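Why predict the complex rather than its parts? Because the way molecules touch one another can change local conformation, and only a joint prediction can capture that. The input here totals 487 residues.
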Amino acid sequence: MPLIRRDPPPPAGDALPATGGLKSDDPDTRRRAIRSLGHEPQAVPVLMGALEGESVPAVLEAIFSALEMIPDAASPLASLLRSDDAGLRNDAVEALQAMPDAVRPLLPGLLADRDADVRILSVEVTRCLPAGEMVTLLCGLLEGDNDPNVCAAAVEILAEAGTAEAVPVLRRLAERFKSLPMLPFAARVAIERISGAGN
Amino acid sequence: MHPEKPPAPEIRITDPEFRRFRDFFYRRTGIVFSDAQRTYVDRRLTDCIVAAGSKGFPDHFARLLVEPAEMERLISAFTVNETYFYREDYQLHCLTSSLLPQITAAKRPGQTIRLWSIPCSTGEEPYSIAIWLLENWPQVDSWDIEIIGSDIDSRVLQAAEAGIYSERSLMRLPRPLVARYFTVIGDGQYRIDAELRGSVRFSRVNLIDQGETSRWRNIDVVFCRNVLIYFDEVSRRNAANNLYDSMAPGAFICLGHTESMSRISPLFHVCRFDEAIVYQKPGEAGHA
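Output of the joint prediction:
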């Protein structure tokens, strides 16, 4: 019979010294080194350092997968929302969404950030929270934020997963931005969806 | 006259106990239960508590922390182990008509082709792969084919090694194949051929434990069907990373028909074959 059975191989001997493997020219070696770092808080600065100059998707995936399993990584990941690299920003959003307990205390500050682009990405991160918490945070933002793009991002999420508490806030938003037709329109669509009048 | 048995204690799982159990089970297995599954969890957990003779949740939970056998029984109770031979056989068609031709094109005859069924439950899937290859792949004699079956539940692995199946497990298998590869052992039970039993290596592996999956390398085709749906996003991504590292460059992974790797991880390419959609690790096949 051509079917063969072998005993299990010994544990893979690829637990490379992380600091050496991380500098390797070979992406597989770098990836293995990343994955050998474990998920303890002390791995966070090493993982964040490994992001610098890294462009191979499989290595980046290993880095972000490791970071999202370490609650202490939430704050460094949030700092990537300011990155000039769109890929890093998006990966950071995904990683932060995967760690709701760790990101929860950071969100009020991120949603009040001076940088509107950071606020837009932070609005995306709120998708990871239970609906009640997400609505509270986004409604708070909509009451005070003056950037139409930030508000539009929040309205879009409320249209998908908002609850009745958001309706009066959306009405006030439409009034506040009545000179910008796009926002009152988006708010009306969101209200209709939340109220069950539209799909 | 028999003395009356004392009534079983009424076991109730409180809300904090449910949450504690849910977190504990998730950390151990990667399987996450939602609030909507509360009734299901309560029923299974209560059954385990009664069967183990524990006094209640606190007593049983304390035992779970120190008694590996109880933990095994718990995992077994909460993992769905029902399967049957030739389940989702379109992927077996895909294996022989599309995947193996690509894999063997980059190998030399006589080299090893390594196939991994994880989770393999009671063995129906890895044995199905073996039977399918013997019956449907003309080049089968030109290669060393290594089939590995792995599962987190060591009790189902024992059953897999015993290779005894009910009529129900064999319902999709053509009768001539049942006659060729099984022996009736009575009471609607069949035992799979000893040679086949000896050709599949079973091993306990927790898919989300990198230390356990890393023992397996250079896998050419992974069958990982209907398990990732039970994991939360972080565990799914972790499992995908573990599988990726165990696979050879150019290797393929088959998921259940309702699952999509594209929604889990960007590591794999989508391959649309006539018979099935499968996912491929980038890189050229052809390692030893």
